[in-house]
Each structure stands twice: as structure tokens, then as C-alpha cells.
Specification:
The chain is 41% helix and 17% strand. It has 447 residues and is of the alpha/beta class. The chain is elongated, with a radius of gyration of 26 Å.
Amino acid sequence: MPGALLTDLYELNMAASYLRHGMLAPATFSLFVRNLPPSRGFLVAAGVESCCEWLEQFGFEDEDLAYLAHLGFDDGTLESFSTLRFTGEVVAVPEGRIIFANEPIIEITAPLAEAQLVETYLLNQVSLQTMLATKAARCRLAAAGKIDLVEFGFRRTQGIEAGIAAARLSAMAGFSATSNVEAARRYGLVAAGTMAHSYIEAFEHEVDAFSTFASDFPDQTTFLVDTYDTLAGVARAIEVIKSRDLAHHSGIRLDSGDLAELSVAARLLLDAAGLFDVRIFVSGGLDEYDLARFVTVGAPIDAAGIGTQLGVSADAPYLDSAYKLVAYDGRQVVKLSEGKATLPGPKQVFRGAHLQDEIGCRDEAAPSGAAPLLEQMMRSGRRLGRLDTLSAAHVRFEADLRDLPEAARRLTHPVAPISQITPRLSRLTEEVRATARQRAGLGTGPS
């Protein structure tokens, strides 16, 4: 469905007023994050693809208009809404790029009512997906290339759409697989899964559960060993692995207790049995801090399932995102509110070495040694070129991750780079703010 009612009521009220009064000129809105969460030294841009897909389909269905009539919108407004489509342009940061506070992620230029109506959906998608992608990236950093990561969060994400997004974005950040079968089908990901404790409990004896599962799935057997007694479970798994010759394509999963300590004990038992290739998989409420601890103590863990903590970005579950008008009808505008002042006009981010960024005017030349970060994604309401791919987003992510300063990579007390403002944008900002203060009857005052 086009979903034009996926918005807040005040967006419809404003759009109706604009249309009623003939305010049809182009407007530019900028979507950005004002401040990073305290635990974040960077963000990973995501959600742009979902936004472009939705914008191409944007429109009001007959049942939408009928409901708006029920809410009291007049016939003239409903007539205007009936033919309204998104006809503007989208300039955005490609998914997978690492970004920082106050940098525009998406800028929309379209007739004012169109650009206003899409605010809620764009904020929803970019905020959610950027938040999830960033959490996945932190897990990648913590694993330090020593632990394979599997996304396990579908059952705990706040909605089906969030679960699909978490699987896709974890792959973008370098996870090796997901438990989410629909996401795996949709995006060509590796689907991974073991068994639940209920499977073990359904059999009279633990060894019978292991033996039965191994006979049914001999090429993908990972034994969940902690239902009753973890090390006894490891011993029974060893018995089945050896009896069925599964030494080279099986594993054990630890889901409770001190996973680092238990992994050491389990590895000793496996190695003593000559099962050096049997992998140890851990799960159970894990996050990037757990992964970092495993790596630090040298726990012999081969892979980890990351579920709830990733699926809801538990330590930073929202972003201070904003969608602000920066230009209308050839006039550049600003907001002067304390702590929420904006930068005027269409913008560009110029990226130099080691992710040193400058925010500038859209039409100014890039500083020496820097390149524009935002790219045009849509024109006249249609996408430009081929759809972006998950693999392309992953390549961009890996390149930026290599350049990310060490202070920004830290899991605790990170220091995020501060994007500078180009001299031209700085001058423009002072001029537009002075004009805005004058029009508001505030005099010159402090900038």
C-alpha cells in the first residue's frame, strides 16, 4: 500500500493549509541526528533504501480519503490530496557509510506539502535502521574478527519490520548469518539455527534428543548442551558426535552460565576427545561488551548469537533525530531555538582522510582532498539508476570502518569526531540567522 496515512495528523493539517493557500513552491528539508547517544562514537547510515521505495509509491487511496473526510478535512483538501504524489528529489548518504552528529542523512526537495507529509515515515525508518546498524557495527568491532556473529533477535524486536531490518543491517555490518528465515530469503542471507531447550525436554533422555537431531540434520548439527548440566551435556554431545562421525561439521551451543569459563571447560573436553574441529557457539542476552570480554580473556568461542540487545539496541534505543525546513521558495531559513538551532539551505558533507568531515553548502566546491558524501538518489519522484545492493552497502561500511578513528571506535567513553562547518556555510548561517532575528523582532542579539 502507498501508505500516505503513515504520518502524524499535524503533517496533514499543515499540508492542507499549504495547499489551501497556494504555497506550492519547492522546499528543502534536512534529516539529521542532533546529538549521538553517550555510548556512541559514530552512526552507520541506514534506512535510505526503505525511504526511496516508499516515496516512489506515495499517494492517497480512496479509503484514505474517506477516513480523512471522517476526520473533518474539507472537499477541496481531499481533492488536492487525491492527486498528490511525491515528485521531488532525494539527496542522501548511501547506506553503510559512517556518519556523525548534525550531518544531513537525507535532504528532500519537493513542493512544500509533499516534503512535509513524508517527514514522519522518513524519521521512523532512518532512526530505527541507523540505530540498529550502529549497534551491529559495535558488535563487529567488539568481536575483533575472532568470533563469528549470528543475528538472533527476531523474537524480541519491536515489530516484524524491525526484525527484518535487524537481519539485513547486521549482514551489512558483517554478521555471517541470521536466524530470521524470511529475511534470509528476502536478502539472500545465510539462515542459521540450532535447537531449543524444549526439544531436549521433549525426549526422555538428553542423549536421545542429540542422537535423533543428528540423524535428522547430520550436516547442520549443533547440540544445545546446557538444559540440565552443561558439562554433562558436552560429554553426551561428544558421544553422539563420535558415534555418528560428525567431527568435521558439528558444534555445541552454550546458552547460560559463565560462558567464557564454560567454553574453556568444553574446549578441553572436546580436544581430549580429538574433536578439534567441533565449534563452540554461545548465546543468551549477549551484547558488544560480552563479546569484548570474551576476546580479552581469550575464551575459545567460535561464534555467538546476538539477539535482544541488538534487536532493540538496548543501551541506545532511540536517536535524537530531526527533520527541519532549511529552504522554501528560494529563501533559506533557520530555526533559532536554544539547543535546537539549524543550519540553513541545502547542504553537502565533504569527507576527507580518516573521516574528517565538513558540512557545507550543496553547491560549493569540495575542499582539497575531500569528496562529497551525499548522493542524489531520486529526481522527479523516481529513483536514479539501479537499486542499491546489500553487498555494496557492506563494502562502503567496511571501508569507513577501517578509517574510523580509534577514539570513536571505543565501546566505552567514545569520542565522536565533530564535523566542521565550511567558511561559506558559516557566513551564510550568520546572515540567515540575523535576518530571522530581525523578522522576528528580536534585533541583532547574539548569534
